[in-house]
TrEMBL record:
UniProt protein name: histidine kinase
Organism the protein comes from: Brevibacillus parabrevis
Major localisation: membrane
Boundaries of the shown chain within the full protein: 173 to 429 of 429
Catalysed reactions listed for this entry: ATP + protein L-histidine = ADP + protein N-phospho-L-histidine
Domain Histidine kinase as annotated: residue spans: 41-257
GO biological process: cellular response to phosphate starvation
Major enzyme class: transferase
Length: 257
């Protein structure tokens, strides 16, 4: 009985280990239609900055006698669009590699409070420039199993959005604390907010609330889909609550183990 019991325990341990190891990698299945749609949307989005660069280069080429000062606007637009293109390509690569499971989460024991602290420090400087107050409440030490680089990227996406969609004089609040066997990261802003009907689409690739208004702010419409992928790969949850004209909160909860 002891031998059979031992053998059964070993088999259960092996099966559970195999299952957990597979779960740790979570292969996210992407349908053929979704991949086609992704390629079509990506091509469309890539064409916009490329066209702007080409048009401005052609205009510059037509006036070889003009000085740099005279053509500074065209040069500036070209540079801005090149920057946008570069960000778009980087985001597209992240998503394409995550779809093909090429990009995996390097799970190690990390200090989440330190990751949040490091990231908010950078954004404090950027907030000062935009005259936005940034307050933090980070509890520590908070140790979790996760990928430091990806969690840093997640915070950059949420903080970058909070800063982008909050006007001068507004405020941002970031907290990070333990909540039972999970950790909760809250990024709350007093920005322009998001209407109820747009909230279900926020994590869709290329979704931007108001294409015309968003066009004036830098962005690709891919940030939140990357954020969702990072949270899912950590077996966590991301929740958004928002009110137009009042502000937006993103709450991320991650398991400690
Ligand atoms: P983007 O690069 O356009 O910011 P995201 O995927 O990060 O793309 O966000 C998708 C859209 O969700 C944004 O274009 C914006 O309209 C809206 N959004 C995201 N975060 C916020 C926020 N904190 N406040 C208001 N709107 C937001």
């Amino acid at each position: 009985v002891v031998v059979i019991g031992g053998a059964v325990s070993v088999v259960i341990a092996i099966v559970a280990g195999w299952f957990l190891a597979r779960r740790a990698l979570i292969p996210i299945q992407v349908s053929w239609e979704k991949q086609q749609q992704f390629i079509a949307d990506a091509s469309h989005e890539l064409r916009t900055p490329l066209t702007a660069i080409m048009v401005n280069l052609e205009r510059l080429f037509r006036h070889p006698d003009h000085t740099i000062e005279q053509e500074s606007e065209k040069i500036m637009i070209g540079m801005q669009e090149a920057k946008r293109l570069s960000k778009l390509v980087a985001d597209l690569l992240t998503l394409a590699r995550s779809d093909s499971n090429e990009l995996q989460i390097m799970s190690k024991r990390i200090r989440l409070d330190e990751v949040v602290q490091k990231c908010t420090q950078v954004f404090t400087q950027l907030a000062i420039v935009k005259e936005i107050s940034l307050e933090t409440n980070i509890e520590g030490p908070l140790e979790i199993a996760g990928d430091e680089e990806r969690l840093h990227q997640l915070l950059v996406i949420l903080l970058d959005n909070a800063l982008k969609y909050t006007n001068k004089g507004g405020s941002i609040y970031v907290s990070c604390k333990k909540d039972g066997n999970r950790v909760a990261i809250l990024v709350k802003d007093s920005g322009i907010g998001i209407s109820k009907e747009n909230i279900p689409y926020l994590f869709d690739r290329f979704f931007r609330v108001d294409k015309m208004r968003s066009r004036s702010t830098e962005g690709t419409g891919l940030g939140l889909s990357i954020a969702k992928w990072i949270v899912d790969a950590h077996h966590g949850k991301i929740h958004v609550s928002s009110e137009e004209g009042i502000g937006t909160s993103f709450l991320v909860t991650l398991p400690v183990k």
